[in-house]
C-alpha cells in the first residue's frame, strides 16, 4: 500500500480507510492476508554484482579487443609464440582488474539492516514484539523513546513525542509530533507533524500509530526507487581510454598502410610487406597498458583504504582526481550531527562562550576569553541548575564514543553541565529530588520540572524565548532586551532556548505559570562544524574545487555553517521551493551553478542539482549519510557516503565510503586521484613514446631500403611485455608532484589526448627512434652481421627506454634526483629489466627463441653512447618546449 495523503485526514478516517482498529489492531488472519498482498517490510536491495559480471566488464575494453585481434592474426600467420605473448598481456590486465574489483565488492556488500529491527505492535488486542520485516499496513504500532521506527505510520495518539529525522530530512533537530494535527495543504516530510517515518527514531515521548506504508512503498522506499532512475556515465578515465583505443585503431591502420605503400613502392615482396605491417600494428599497441593502468588504479585503491576511504570500483579512484565540484550534505557530513551549546546569555548582561564540540564532555565556559569557575558566579550557577535539571536526556559513553539517549537539544544541556562539573547525577547526589514534571509538547512548547532540596522547592522551566517571555513577569524594557538578544543569537544560526524559574512552586499544580516565569538567560545551541572541515574546504578551494552545501535544514542555519567553514558562496542561498519554482527560467542553470547553499531541498532536488552541474561539464562528487542523500549519491560522478553514521541505503548507493566520516578524507582521496591520473599520463607517455621508437626505426629502414628489419616481432613483444612493463608499473607508485593540489581540476574532454600531451610523445619517440635506426645502420656499416646488428639495436632500445623513464617520471626536471628514492619499486624494476635483457642476449635458450647473439664490449660502448646521447637530447627538448 502506497502512502496516501493521510496527514491531511482525521484519525477516524485513516483507521476506516486502511481497515484497522485503533484499540485492538489487526487480527492474525488479516496480517497473513496482508503479508501475501504487500510482501515483507524490507527495502529492495541493490543487485549483487556477480564475479562473471566483473570479469566481462574487465574484458569489455577496446585495447583488450585490439590485443585479442593481434593474437588471432599472429596465430593465423603461424607466429604461435607472438600470439601466446599477447594473450599473456591480456591475462595480466584482466586478472589484476578482476581480483582487485572483486575484493572491493566483497568489502562493501551492504546488509539491509536499516529496517530489520524489532517493532512493538498491538495485534488481536495484545501488545507483542515482532520482527519489523513482518509489519503490514494497518498494524497498530506502539512507540516509546529510543525506538527505531520501521514503517511509515499516521499517529493516532501521542504524548510529548519527538523523532530524529536527520537521515530522511536533513534536519539536525528532533521534530516534535502531534497526533491531533491535520493539514489542509501539501507540506514537506519534515513538516508532517502527525506522521512518523521508516528509518527514523523516537527521541522522547510515546505514541500509537497506524502503519500506512511498508517496504518499497514507504518514503524511504520511494527514495530508494530514485536510485533506479539514474545511470552512471563512464568515468573520465574510461572515456579517455576509449578515445585512446579508437586512436590506436587509426594509428595501427595508418602505419600498416604506410608500410604497404612504401614496401610495394620499393619493390618488396607482398608477404614481407604484410609481415612488417603486422609487426607495426603490434608495435603501435601498448600491450602492457591495460595491466599497468589496472595495477595503478588498484594501488590507488589500496592507498585510499589506508586513508580510511573504501572505494568500490577501480574507475572511481581516478574519477576523484577529476572532481571539480563537491556537493556536500550538511548534517553529519560538514557538521557533527551532535547539538552543542555555544553561547550563554544571562539577564544581567553577562555573555559566555562555551568551548568543545559534540557530545564529548570536554570544554570550558569562557567570559571575555578567560575560563571561569562556575561556583564563583552565582547567577551562572543558578542558570546551570535550571538547564541541567530540566532535562530527561542521558549521556552515555561506549569505547570512547559519546552519544545521547533522548532529545539531542536536551543532550546539549546535559553535556554543558558535564563540561563544568554540573552533571545531573552530581546535582541529584547533592540532594535535588524531582517531584513532578510537565513534559515538553508541541502545544505548550515548554517543559517544567519541580525539584526539592532539603526544605526548599525549585520549579525550573525551559522553552522557546517568545513563549517564556509571554509567561514572564519582566517589565517591557527587559522583555525588549531579551527579544533583541534572541534575534541576535538566532542570526548566528543557533537554536535559542530560554531557561528560567517559576517563583510559585505550586504553579505546576494549579496552572498559574503565566505571569510567574522569571527568565534566567538564553542559551544558543547549534550542530557545530566538524573539526577538520574548515581546513579541508580551504584545500578544496586552493585546488580549484568548488564546494556546495545541499541540505534539508533551515536556510539561515545552513548559511551560518557555510560561513563558519569558510565557503565562499555562503550568502548565495536557494531553497528547494525556489528551486522548483525557477526550473523553467532562462537563467536557472546559471543560478544553480553560482549558488553555494541549497537549503530545505528534497531528495529529488538534490539529484536534479547534481544533474544540472554535470550538464555544465562539471565532474561532481556528492557526499552524504542519509537516506535522503542516496539518489544524489548514485547519480553523481562519484558518490561518497559516511561509513560510521551513514545509513545502509546511502552506503549502497555510493562509490566510496569514508570509514572515519572525516570530510578531510575526501581531500586526501581527491589528491590521490590526481596522483593516479598524473601517473597514468606518465606511463601512457612512456609506453607510447617507447612504441614510437620501434615504429620509427622500422619505417626508416624501409625508406632507406635496408633489406632486413632493425628488430624482429619477438623483440618488440619482449620490449613491450618484459622490459617495459615493470618500469611502467613503477610509474604508478610515483610520489605527487609538488604543486598537484595547486592546479585546477582538468575539464571534461581535456585528458590524455590533448595536443600538449601528444607533442612530447611524438618528439621523444622520434628522437629515440632515429637513434635506434642510427645504431642499426652504424652497426651494419661497421661490418656486423645482421643478427648482431639486430641484437645491438634490440638492446639499445631496452637500455634507452629504461633511461627514458627518468625524463618521464618528473614533469619539470630530470628524474635522477632524491625523489627516486621514494619510489624504490622503480629502482628494482629497472634493475630487473636490465637483468632480463641480459638473459635475452646471453642465455642460449633465449638466443634460439628470440634470434639474438651475445654482445661484446664494443657493442656495449656503442649502446651506452647512443642511449645516453638520446636521453640528453630528449631532456633538452623537454626544457625548451616545456613538455608536460
TrEMBL record:
InterPro entries: ATPase_P-typ_cation-transptr_C, ATPase_P-typ_cation-transptr_N, ATPase_P-typ_cyto_dom_N, ATPase_P-typ_P_site, ATPase_P-typ_TM_dom_sf, ATPase_P-typ_transduc_dom_A_sf, ATPase_P-type_domA, HAD-like_sf. Gene3D superfamilies: Calcium-transporting ATPase, cytoplasmic domain N (3.40.1110.10), Calcium-transporting ATPase, cytoplasmic transduction domain A (2.70.150.10), Calcium-transporting ATPase, transmembrane domain (1.20.1110.10), HAD superfamily/HAD-like (3.40.50.1000). It is a multi-pass membrane protein. Keywords: ATP-binding, Membrane, Nucleotide-binding, Translocase, Transmembrane, Transmembrane helix. Residues 5-79 form the Cation-transporting P-type ATPase N-terminal domain. One of its GO terms (cellular component) is membrane. The chain crosses the membrane at residues 59-77, 83-102, 247-266, 272-298, 683-706, 712-736, 757-778, 784-806, 827-847, 859-877. It is found in: Membrane. PROSITE patterns: ATPASE_E1_E2. SMART domains: Cation_ATPase_N (SM00831). GO terms for molecular function: ATP binding; ATP hydrolysis activity. This is Ca2+-transporting ATPase.
